[in-house]
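QA checklist item 7 of 12: single-chain prediction sanity check.
[x] sequence parsed
[x] length recorded as 195
[x] structure emitted
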Amino acid sequence: MYNEKEFQIMKKNALENHIPIIMDDTLEKIKEILKEEKPKNILEIGTAVGYSASCFAIFSDAQIDTIELDEERAKEAIQNVDKVGVSNRISIMIGNAVDILPTLKGEYDIVFIDAAKSKYSIFLEEGKRLVKNNGLILADNVLYKGYVMSDYNKHKQRTAVRHLREYIKEVTENPYLKTEILDIGVGLAITRVTK
């Protein structure tokens, strides 16, 4: 049984400190997906403070492997998932996902991408390798404040927007990938992978 109070404290702290966490409407959709798919294992790229990993543990029986680049944030995530009471099912790896992913051998039911937008294409390639046949790759933030589908071209976000457009192009045009892009939260791409 998880600790609801600690879970809400983690959410509140993340929001107050402007730490990007999964939005409520996106989470509702993911809850539905977890219910349907009944994953045994999930790989998350981008732990932040452990909020989404905790959600996955609460809404499913899966084991969760998650990767976080920022060491301080990862330490906070380790404390958070412990307080919430789900640490027995969450394994947090600290380091750069670009370096860690190629070393992983497992087959995951679901891969969840919510990290550096400029690396989404790399994460997709590794995700396709690591997800089981007919498994899912979920990518949060793919519409990025509406910039990705507009003619947005401001310098500050241009690189992130370009990389997300490349990600969307790959998941919608690759015949082995069946993708639905939902305009919820900041955009959620749900990709079914056929091998």
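[x] summary fact logged: Residues 46 and 116 are 8 Å apart (CA to CA).
[ ] second reviewer sign-off
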